[in-house]
Amino acid sequence: MSTVATKDKGPGPDELTFEAPKAEELAALLVSKDRPPRPGALSASLTFGWRAMLKIKHVPEQLFDVTAFPIMMVLMYAYLFGGALAGSVSEYIQFLLPGILTMSIVMITMYTGVAVNTDIAKGVFDRFRTLPIWRPAPMVGYLLGDVIRYLIASAVMLAVGMAIGYRPHGGVLGVLAGVALLMVFSFAFSWIWTMFGLLLRTEKSVMGVSMMVIFPLTFLSNVFVDPRTMPGWLQAFVNNSPVTHVATAVRELMAGNWPAADIAWSLGWSAVLLAAFGTVTMRLYNRK
Amino acid sequence: MSGHPGPELAIETAGLVKVFGDNRAVDGVDLSVPAGTVYGVLGPNGAGKTTAVKMLATLLRPDGGAAHVFGKDVVREADAVRGRVSLTGQYASVDEDLTGTENLVLLGRLLGHSKAAARTRSAQLLEAFGLAEAAERQIKNYSGGMRRRIDIAASILNTPDLLFLDEPTTGLDPRSRNQVWDIVRAVVAQGTTVLLTTQYLDEADHLASRIAVIDHGKVIAEGTKGELKASVGSGSVHLRLRDPAQRPEAERVLRGALNVAVQLDQDPVALTATVNGHASDLGAAEQAARALSALAASGITVDNFALGQPSLDEVFLALTDRNARSAPGDGAPHNASTTGVPA
């Protein structure tokens, strides 16, 4: 680094902007006291969703968990269990893909808690909380942004699955219906994480607690195998787990069937999760 | 609230309390801030300034007492309060991952501006704050001074009626600090009330018309700048002696000549006398001159001499010292190195 070279580069980034604020300009800007009407609930939530998109643009690495991780999940479990459980990978993927899709998306939802927690630590939350807007908007915005991430993950997993032999007999409509149901459930389920994000003090503790919840909940389901060979007490848990209902509904929808009971269970669980954890989240958010 | 004969109050608190565990962070604060002024809240780290501001800005619920902003209760009518205030916190309350423009457009949209209006307003503010060049850079690449400016810009997207500035210049170099001061003056000139917290006496001195001094969650002094200064002395005479052995003699001479508090500094040759221009017939400079001649007459060699404004330390020592004296057993900190005025 010679002095000549730095001179040629002109003023550094900081010097460039080191001029004083312009008082007259500022005064002119402050004169207008009229305020536009407050944005509605949907508009505010969508604006926060846009913020999530901007964050993806600036920190694209955060898409790693919705691209590389799902590919790994599909390939790992298909080749690990395929031969033993169903005779071949192409047989097993037919059963596995909708389940592993459900499992992966539900697992990815836990990053929401980490994002909420990081934001709080940085102080930007204080500004959002002093704005005269619909109170849940920042949270709903996160989750709307996350739905985009889940859609990316779903597309990636379906592509990988189809490459190794998955054939959804429900066609495009069946696949879309399955993904849509999964999105609804994930949106509702994510409120558990916004709660932990607000409740716990550090990013690490959010991760730790999330793992404790997510592993039993996703693995103790019918994602990998039919529960009929499990001991009775485990069957009781697995058959009533929301993840099992969602996985079954997604599997059947993509196969071209109409699993009315499982769809109803999935939507019912979604409503319960949203009502319970959404309420707690907003209480914590207002009290924080 | 009953009608006030005086000017409209931007902030009014009565017995405001916030407790964290067994720490009474804010312990019965009464404030009356007239609209259209800069009100300084002065205090050291941990005095409860930020906690008080957070309660007024609806971020924290008070555990006791009441607080009204423009007559609206900060708990029951929080939404109405939020519509009229903005907060610039101690740490940049903007999104570090986004650019300057994106941050301002985001907030503009959340305040109800159309996309086009939000863009226009952002560009104007960035220009006026000298940030146009940095508009498309992420905030995490901004310098400390630039962060404060974008933070304040974000607070005046809609001109607020009340602006909270929580230690806006802590950690800034003198030049950036002056820029922030210029901005504050411009904002106030347009009729916005500013509540400014600071640990620097000269900042409160430059900007505020009234000042409350807070320590351990309590207001220990309140008044106009003149009143506050008069109460703690108008200045300090700092002396450095050639011979440390002469210090006890010098202390005696100074107390005799000025009849004021004399403080023995850490440095064995240094001592400080607080002089009070208002309490005596003589001004601070005359008192200092008298002190010097008294020392010379006693054969004490002074190597170095300075007459300064009271520092925040001295203000606190003076105020907390008096506090402890007027309310014995109150537990207010008492500095052992201060030798008080003979009562």
UniProtKB/TrEMBL annotation, chain A:
Its membrane topology: Multi-pass membrane protein
TM stretches of this protein: 63-86, 92-118, 139-166, 172-193, 205-225, 263-285
Annotated compartments: Cell membrane; Membrane
UniProt-listed Pfam families: ABC2_membrane
Alphabetical keyword list: Antibiotic resistance, Cell membrane, Membrane, Transmembrane, Transmembrane helix, Transport
Keyword Phosphoprotein: no
Domain ABC transmembrane type-2 stretches: 61-288
Family assignment from sequence similarity: Belongs to the ABC-2 integral membrane protein family.
Protein name (record): Transport permease protein
Organism name: Streptomyces chryseus
Record lineage: Bacteria, Bacillati, Actinomycetota, Actinomycetes, Kitasatosporales
From TrEMBL, chain B:
InterPro entries per record: AAA+_ATPase, ABC_transporter-like_ATP-bd, ABC_transporter-like_CS, ABC_transporter_ATP-binding, DrrA, P-loop_NTPase
Coiled coil: none
Cellular localisation: Cell membrane
Residue intervals of the ABC transporter domain: 11-241
Gene3D superfamilies to which the protein is assigned, alphabetical: P-loop containing nucleotide triphosphate hydrolases
Any one GO molecular function term: ATP binding
Keyword Heme: no
SUPFAM superfamilies per record: P-loop containing nucleoside triphosphate hydrolases
Pfam family, any one: ABC_tran
Keyword Protease: no
Family, as annotated: Belongs to the ABC transporter superfamily. Drug exporter-1 (DrugE1) (TC 3.A.1.105) family.
Record-given protein name: Daunorubicin resistance protein DrrA family ABC transporter ATP-binding protein
Organism: Streptomyces chryseus
